Amino acid sequence: MCCSCGEDCECRPLGFLLGLPFAFVSLLLSLVGVVIWIVGILLSCLCPCCLCVTVIVELALALIKAPFSVMKWFTEQIPC
Predict the structure, then answer these.
(1) CA 57, CA 4: separation in Å to the nearest integer?
(2) 20 to 30 A Cα–Cα from 47, which one of 9, 16, 32, 78?
(3) pLDDT per residue as tens digits for the range 62-75
C-alpha cells in the first residue's frame, strides 16, 4: 500500500512525465537496435556458423525493448 487512502496505486503520472525525455532517447536507441537487428539477421542467414552475430542480434533486441524498460523503471521509482 503506497497511498494514504490505503489502496494500492499503479498509476504514477509524475514518474511517467519525468521518464519521457529518457524514453525518447531510448526510443532513438531502439531504432538503432532495429537496424542492427535487421543487419544481424541478414548476416546470420548468410553465415549461420557465425556465433558473434547471435550476440549482436541479442544486443539489438535489448535496445529495441529499452523504451519500455526505462518507462517501467521510472514509474516504479516515484511513489504515489
Answers:
(1) 45
(2) 32
(3) 888 888 887 788 77
Residues 7-21 as b/e (b if ≥16 CB within 10 A, e otherwise) read eeeeebeebeeebee
Q: How far apart are CA 48 and CA 67, in angstroms?
A: 30
Instruction: Round to whole Å and give the CA distance between 31 and 22.
Output: 14
Mean predicted confidence (pLDDT) in 2-17: 60
**54: amino acid identity, one letter:** T
Quick check: 1 pLDDT over 50?
Answer: no
Find the length of the chain. 80
> Concatenated DSSP letters for 4-41?
TTS------HHHHHHHHHHHHHHHHHHHHHHHHHHHHH
One-letter amino acid at 15 equals G
